[in-house]
Each structure stands twice: as structure tokens, then as C-alpha cells.
């Protein structure tokens, strides 16, 4: 009886997993099929199989867009914003989780304050940040995007870092300190190597967010030479018309690199999420 229940449970489990996988994959496959259709086919028969796999949409996207420059702009923003957001939040998380305060309510209050950012929708921040950038004279510059990207990622990074550091063995910290190691050496030689899965998770999620981020980029950038990948699709939208095929083809060219990166670092992401967020 127990063996039959175990077999039935496995069947139900695999059925649910396969069903979820199919639900996730079908929209992406449909998107690929749409990218080989003409605009008339997309509008009139979006669910049909294309009569001919026409790569014209991809050619149009490659001829219209300066992909090299857009990838360069996006990578520049990703590297700078991810580096500073990861560094700042790791240092603050280490202080919250491992340093001693006269009043324990201080680190707990700071921790809760930083986590409040998870409950704030990005769209609410657009107008205040726009006004700040305008008054500061950085509207339209990369700095006007980098600073909001750093701030937006603080809450998520803090959740993972503090969640892991709270269960980090104190012995691994106290022993090197007694041996005369300083704080920077402690973090770089002892703490960070152990936290590698969490760091990879934080870096990857931050990078993917910036790759896909659209509201800030579309609002704060007005120079096409500074456009990011997320703004590629908007270049095929006119005042009275829209090139659906080129938009879909451009979107696929954005998605595929992200899928490759995610697949490559998948084991680190799962490990980092379980060790950080669940513990937190």
C-alpha cells in the first residue's frame, strides 16, 4: 500500500512539473513562430503555423538597431550598478547580521527599513526620481540610471545576504580575528568564498533586472546613442504604426542570452536562494 502511494505521488509530482514546464515553454515557442511571420499573418492568424520561415524580421532588426552599441551600453550599466549595489549591500548586511550594537533594535530596525523597498512598486518611484535627476542635472546621463538601479536592488540583496549571514558560523569569524586578520581580509578571504552561491544569485538577478528594465530607461534616457537593450523594441513603434514582427524578433535576441546565462548558473541560483532567502 505504501509503495502504491509512493508511486502515485511520484506520478502526480512529475505530471505537475511537466505541466508547469509546458505552460512556461509554450509562450516562448509561440513567440519564436511569430518572429518568422509577416505583420499581416501576426494580426490575422496569430495562432497558425507560419507558411514559410521568413527571417526578414531578424534582418530588419539587425539592420535597424545598433546591437553592438546597445549591448555595450547595457553591459556598462550592469557592471557598474551591480558592482556597487552588491558591495554596498554586502557591507551593510554584514554589519546588520554579525556586528554588535549597544542596542539590538538598531540593526533590526535598519534591516526592516531596507526590506520595505520590496513592497514599493517601481512605477511609484518614477516621478520622484525624475525630479531628483532633473534638479541634480544628471537627467539623460548614465549616472541618472545607475543610482536608481543601485537603490532598487538594495532590498532584494539585503534579504539574501542577511538571511545567509545570520546562520554563518561565528567561529569562522572569531578565529581569524584572534589571529590578527583585519575586517577587509576577513570578508575577502573567509566570508565571501563561503557565500559564493549567494553572491552569484545576487549578481545574476541584479544583472537580469537591469537587462530587462524599461520604465527608468525609457523615462530618463533621451539620447538614442545611450539606449539600452530594453529600449530596442520601442524603436519599431511609430505614432500611427507598429512593426510587430521586428519587435518580436528583437525581443527574442534579448531573451536568448539571458536564458543561456541562467542555464549556466542555475545550480548557483538554486543554492543561493535556498541558503539566503529561506533562512531569512
What does this entry show, briefly?
The protein is an all-alpha fold. It has helices at 2-35, 39-44, 56-64, 67-98, 105-115, 122-136, 143-165, 171-178, 183-194, 196-212, 215-220, 244-264, 266-276.
Features:
single chain; 280 residues; mainly alpha; MetI-like fold; 73% helix; globular
Describe the secondary-structure layout.
Layout: H1 2-35, H2 39-44, H3 56-64, H4 67-98, H5 105-115, H6 122-136, H7 143-165, H8 171-178, H9 183-194, H10 196-212, H11 215-220, H12 244-264, H13 266-276
Helix pairs in contact: 1-12, 3-12, 4-5, 4-7, 4-10, 7-10, 7-13, 8-9, 10-12, 10-13
Q: What would your notes on this structure say?
A:
This protein is mainly alpha-helical and 280 residues long. The protein has a single domain (55-276), classed as MetI-like fold (Orthogonal Bundle). The chain is 73% helix and 0% strand. It contains 13 helices and no strands. It has helices at residues 2-35, 39-44, 56-64, 67-98, 105-115, 122-136, 143-165, 171-178, 183-194, 196-212, 215-220, 244-264, 266-276. Helix 4 (67-98) crosses helix 10 (196-212) and helix 10 packs antiparallel against helix 12. The longest helix is centred in the first third of the chain and has 34 residues, at 2-35.
Helix/strand structural class: mainly alpha
**Number of domains in the coordinates?**
1
Series of H and E elements: HHHHHHHHHHHHH
Mean pLDDT: 84
Which ranges are low-confidence, i.e. pLDDT below 50, for 5 or more consecutive residues?
276-280
Rounded to an integer, what's the Rg over CA atoms? 23 Å
Amino acid at each position: 500500500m505504501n509503495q502504491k502511494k509512493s508511486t502515485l505521488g511520484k506520478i502526480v509530482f512529475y505530471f505537475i512539473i511537466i505541466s508547469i514546464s509546458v505552460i512556461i515553454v509554450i509562450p516562448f515557442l509561440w513567440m519564436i513562430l511569430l518572429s518568422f511571420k509577416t505583420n499581416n499573418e501576426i494580426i490575422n492568424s496569430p495562432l497558425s503555423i507560419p507558411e514559410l520561415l521568413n527571417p526578414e524580421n531578424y534582418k530588419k532588426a539587425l539592420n535597424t538597431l545598433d546591437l553592438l552599441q546597445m549591448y555595450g551600453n547595457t553591459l556598462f550599466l550592469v557592471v557598474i550598478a551591480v558592482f556597487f549595489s552588491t558591495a554596498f549591500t554586502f557591507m551593510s548586511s554584514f554589519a546588520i547580521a554579525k556586528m554588535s550594537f549597544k542596542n539590538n533594535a538598531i540593526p533590526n530596525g535598519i534591516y526592516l527599513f531596507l526590506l520595505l523597498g520590496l513592497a514599493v512598486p517601481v512605477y511609484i518611484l518614477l516621478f520622484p526620481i525624475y525630479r531628483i535627476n532633473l534638479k541634480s542635472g544628471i537627467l539623460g546621463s548614465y549616472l541618472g540610471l545607475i543610482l536608481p538601479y543601485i537603490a532598487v536592488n538594495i532590498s532584494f540583496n539585503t534579504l539574501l545576504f542577511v538571511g545567509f549571514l545570520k546562520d554563518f558560523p561565528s567561529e569562522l569569524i572569531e578565529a581569524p580575528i584572534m589571529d590578527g586578520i583585519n575586517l577587509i581580509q576577513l570578508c575577502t578571504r573567509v566570508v565571501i568564498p563561503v557565500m559564493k552561491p549567494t553572491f552569484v544569485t545576487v549578481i545574476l538577478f541584479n544583472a537580469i533586472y537591469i537587462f530587462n528594465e524599461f520604465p527608468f530607461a525609457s523615462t530618463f534616457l533621451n539620447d538614442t546613442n545611450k539606449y539600452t537593450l530594453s529600449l530596442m523594441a520601442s524603436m519599431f513603434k511609430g505614432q500611427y504604426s507598429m512593426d510587430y514582427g521586428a519587435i518580436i524578433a528583437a525581443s527574442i535576441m534579448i531573451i536568448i542570452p539571458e536564458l543561456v546565462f541562467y542555464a549556466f548558473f542555475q545550480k548557483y541560483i538554486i543554492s543561493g536562494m535556498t541558503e539566503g532567502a529561506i533562512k531569512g
